[in-house]
User: Fold these one by one.
Assistant:
Number 1:
Amino acid sequence: MRPPIPHAITSFVAATLLSVSVPVSAAENTRFERGSEVYNQQCAACHQAQGQGIPGSFPPQKNHTAQMYNATDGIGGRRYLGHVLQYGLTGPIKVDGTSYNGNMPAWGGALTSQQMADVLNYVLTAFGNEKRIAGEFQPYTPEDIEAIAGKDLSGKDVYQLRQTLLGQSPEQSRTKATPVRSAPELSLEKSIRDPLYVAVQNSGIVKVLPSKQAWPGVAGAHYNALSPDGSRLMVSGFKTGNVYVLNTASGEVMASVPVGEVAQGVKISPDGRYGLAVAPTQGDVAVIDMNTLELVRKIPVGKVPHNLVYSADGTLAYVTLQGEGALAVVDMRALEKQRQIPTPGLKTPHNIDISANGQRLWLRDFTGNVGVLDLASETMLKTFEVGSGHGGIDVVPGEQYVATGAISASVVTIIDSESLKIVKNVDVGVGPHGVRASRDGQFIYASVTADNHIAVIDTQSLEVVRREPVGGQFPFWLAVPGNP
């Protein structure tokens, strides 16, 4: 199960309870409700409210999870599912004839053992799965999860367990990787000249390159954003619903501000006065005073907001509404929603950037598409099919290119911003999500979530010139001075 990056999630617990078979005993009912809450907050954005998944991007929980539970080869389906939740899953899979380039993050350390047991029990007794379990269902306990924890395993290791479970040997299941072409490797100092701040989600740290400092205290570090003067870093705690503000001189956590059940995109205004943080479950944008570091307002914006960008003058903020196929326009002087702009051709707008002249918005959706919206006419000029799943998007300084990641693929797609044509898909490793360019536009940085490194792309050659390990698990987003 992948984190909701829309990672914005509607509350669907009541509807789910009406549509599935509810356990009969009080204990089972309590367990079901607890698991439903975890699923709602952490899993539904990708795997969907009724467990149907998103074909080609995120596999279904309906039917498939029960089938895996019933498998008896290898370590057995019951233990295998615990491993998937604990350590993630990385590798190509096929479910009901549909292919997925699996890249699910590890949840060990992010959810408690009780939460992991609850959500496994929920998924296996919801969506009609309880009718497909062979024999009597044995609920997971926290002790079952703890017995699986503490091993030196990655999502790729769990993929091999899956293949054995399905009757294939690990050797037979490995796909022959096409060698990744790279230019001669640059040194770290030449390829990352300004501080690059990496939110490393599953390790709960911010990694700073090229200094290689690791700043702790940011549980579930998800999205991040720099203040205009570079002195402060906002980080959303995806798993905690808090927003952290760090001093970039020391790495000290200056404040931790609760904004909702889940925290997604963050951004600091061009004048440095306000920080905005998206709370998708509530449908709000939280406003934080960057001087007092206090929450001053919550602005209702619509269904499942996810991320945002400011207009060049900072008077407006454009917020993606993943649940409405639209953008909310927020007046930053009044601190209230002004109106909505539809995003035809993009049903699930996810991440967003703006051209330097403020005339175009570039949108990345949740399922493998990019759109470019003309603000004057509020029309979609073009949409592009890019790598599967969701990802970040960045208008590269100089505006020759726009770059976008693809968490369910292995490429960063480069688009020519004038001709509106895809120039190249650059292979960077499995699961690139965050994408940001250096302030001079010479390099594009991509956080590669499954391979735990930063890929550096030279914008002249459009080749990878360095892969820098982050020393942690699941690097999700990037902040770069001079390119907010």
Number 2:
Amino acid sequence: MKEYISTLLLAVVTAAVPVLTSYAIGYIRQAGQRAQASTDDIKVQGYIKEITDAISDAVEATSQTYVDALKKAGKFDDEAQAEAAKRALTACIASISPAANAFIKSVYGDLEVYLKNKIEAEVRKQKKAEPATLALPVLESTVPDTKAIAAACAAATAAAVTQVSINQPGTGQTTTPEQQNE
């Protein structure tokens, strides 16, 4: 009987190993393809984020360092606008990695044409956007928040009652010397 079970088990294993191996190899290949696709997507997402940040930062920096001063002086004309666009393009190209640069060229063709269009769109978007605020103003209320005051008082009272009941002598609880010194 023991020999019969060994022979049967050997036959099952012999038949099962090639089948399981082919499934395992197929699964490994699919996992590799998914990992490669995921890596490509992550790279593309990284390039897009890098390019978007570079365009936005270049427009903001040019606006802050060049455009704002000319606008205050009333000297922001068409020539100054062209110079601002040129400065933003130069700053943007300088801040994009070679890999992102190659990505733009492979997907969109001409780097400068692509970036000029995106810079113009970003300028328009920033013009329409509300000015950034660093903090919200604090508003003082003239009416006291009675619910918050009541909740705070109730919590403090509950904590005090709990602490007193824990430290009651004669309750069977002992305190260590460290607790008595506190």
Number 3:
Amino acid sequence: MHSDVIQRTTRQRQVILEEVKRLRTHPTADEIYERVRVRLPRVSLGTVYRNLDVLAANGDIVKLAPGRAQMRFDGNLEAHYHMTCIHCGRIEDLPLTASDNPIDILEKMTSHLTKYGVFGHKLEFVGVCTECTAKGLRFPEMDTVESGIPSENEDDASGRQGKAGMGIRVSRNINKEEGYDI
């Protein structure tokens, strides 16, 4: 998915690309800037932002932007999934192999069941990372009314009992900006 515009590779752009690829933490532009400044002390934050945009437009890195407080970047161009902590924003790659991936089957089925030519999908997992869990942060209570599942101590209209003591909560969250179910 490289851009048709050929741009000269500058020393600054090369160092920025190397730092993004070296960091497996999906860094923000500010984090990349701090790392690049160690190697290029006179580089400006604006130069880092502009070069990150060029690298993303050229397909050399991936911009992880939607639904995030700060834009993050990924130097791993292989197809993979992410797990994002809802508290600190940490993003980790999920170790799913092709043989473990039921999403590929779903993608093929969707192509057959619709008139769309499916060429990809977007999926992100959200949860609480180990560091936030160690700090006592948990997954926030979800609106059980929205999910259609009765709360722990209430029965639904059909007489089914709630999930008391099971810790099961289900919710469907619609990403309004992108229109995707997440």
